[in-house]
Amino acid sequence: MRKRIVILGAGTGGTLVANRLRRLHPEDSAEIVVIDQDDEHVYQPGLLFLPFGPAEAGDLVRSRHGRLRRGVEFRQAPIDRVETGAQRVVLGDGRTVGYDVLVIATGAVLLPEETEGLTGPGWGEKVCTFYDLQGALALRAALARFAGGRLVVAVVDMPIKCPVAPLEFAFLADWHLRRRGLRERVELTYVTPLDAAFTRPVAAGALAGLLADKGVGLVTEFGTAAVDGPGGRLVSYDEREVGFDLAVVVPAHGGAAYVGRSPGLGDELNFVPVDRHTLQAAAAPDVFALGDAAGVPTSKAGSVAHFEGAAVVENVTRVLAGRPPAARFDGHANCFVETGHGKALLLDFNYDTEPLPGRYPWAAAGLPLLKQSRLNHLGKRAFPWLYWHALLPGRDLPGIGADMPVHGKKGR
Fold first, then answer.
1. Alpha-carbon distance 66 to 63, whole Å?
2. 357 near 322, Cβ under 8 Å?
3. Centroid of chain to Cα 279
4. Do the beta carbons of residue 209 and residue 217 sit within 8 Å?
5. DSSP label at 353?
6. Number of DSSP helices (H) and strands (E) in the chain, helices first
7. pLDDT tens digits for 43-89?
8. Strand partners, 224
9. Which positions ≥6 away from 282 have C-beta within 8 Å?
10. Are 190 and 231 in contact (CB under 8 A)?
11. 3-state secondary structure at position 210
């Protein structure tokens, strides 16, 4: 009997899983339906560059349904809730869509309204974010007006999408201001709720060293409770203050709102608890989640959705056949970290191994890990082509497996 696979979300994870499943399952054996509230797929890593000029907004957005293989049905509709007991999705207009297996890939949403004052006076002018398209464009204009003073890059709370992106922004701001001849007139500060520049010790040390080399101040364990735009102040829960003339803020994140309306599906932040290896939801054995929507202890990054996709596709196939999930995701993540001046470094890690020096993906001739290089920068700049033409279509990348390679890493 023909089965129905429903995928919620046509971002990175939902698109690549739909395309891989379509390739694996003939249309007469499985119907694949992808549901999203809009038809605009934003290449989110490109938002980092938009305020500095190298990217254009039109280059970052493409049709969601245009990224899906023939034979995948796309429905544009808001989602009201998931009823796991009835195996159905309830849409915003009350229609329902039943499923045999459900994949949740609706990502994370920004919650700026959760921080007192963040969206008040000054929002979009002297308090900006680059974590969505509208915000990145507003920040481009604010940076163009900025002639000197205190520039603060602040992370309000964790978890966030792409945890290295705020650090990259600080590095690129240093480079950008030097090009404009303004660096000597700017006090640049990075503010984080973490106790270090990054979550993993070896990488945290390397990234903190880079901040120091570039003259970027580091303020740690600063939980931002309020933003005073007119007064130019960030205020922490323990009543410390950081002053600014321009603040680049990464708001708190949560999962999609419909997750909170779905009985038993999400946690307190509307992320979906899953087995961290099989990615099977705690709520029901026929539900899986990947990408930013999934509550797993690794970075919320596009590379993670890519690597998770292999396990989700295999486990969805097994559940459709009446077998238990067996494919395992190891927490693999890798991230290019743009450091300015035409260089970048690369992090590669998983649940058990922190980012270490070495080479990736090949020990003899791979990209250098935890080390600035021109080669890593070129890799990051070339990635958009791979994203649109290989990763989203669900094609295998030569030499890039889902599991973290152990060879080539020093210190294991």
1. 5
2. no
3. 17
4. no
5. -
6. 8, 26
7. 999 999 999 986 788 889 999 999 999 999 999 999 999 999 999 99
8. 236
9. 273, 274, 275
10. no
11. helix
Judge whether 176 and 52 are in contact, CB under 8 Å. Answer: yes
pLDDT in the model for residue 314 = 98
**Contacting residues for 68 by C-beta, under 8 A, at least 6 apart:** 10, 15, 18, 19, 22, 34, 74
336, 375 Cβ separation under 8 angstroms:
no
> What is the number of residues in the chain?
412
For residues 73 and 6, what is the distance between their CA atoms, to the nearest angstrom? Answer: 10
Distance CA 373, CA 149 (A): 30
Q: How far apart are CA 188 and CA 250, in angstroms?
A: 16
Contact in structure between 76 and 26 (CB atoms under 8 Å): no
CA-wise closest residue to 360 among 343, 336, 327, 329:
336
Per residue in 242-281, pLDDT (tens digit) is 999 999 999 999 999 999 999 999 999 999 999 999 999 9
Nearest one of 166, 127, 277 to 135, comparing CA atoms: 127
Location of structure tokens 């740690």: 220
In sequence order, what are the residues at sequence separation of 6 or more whose Cβ sits closer than 8 angstroms to the Cβ of residue 67?
10, 15, 19, 41, 388, 392, 393
Which amino acid, one-letter code, is at 224?
A: T
User: Residue 73 corresponds to which amino acid?
Assistant: E
As to burial, measured by CB atoms within 10 angstroms (0-12 exposed, 13-18 middle, 19+ buried), residue 340 is: buried
Q: Could you give the C-alpha distances from 68 to 100, 134, 153, 180, 391, in angstroms and in order?
A: 20, 26, 36, 42, 12
Positions in the chain short of pLDDT 50:
none
- Residue 365 is predicted with a pLDDT of 79
Question: According to the model, what pLDDT value does residue 412 have?
Answer: 57
For residue 345, the cross-strand partners are 337
Question: Contact at 8 Å (CB) between 198 and 204?
Answer: yes
Give the Cα separation of 202 and 354 in Å (integer). Answer: 7
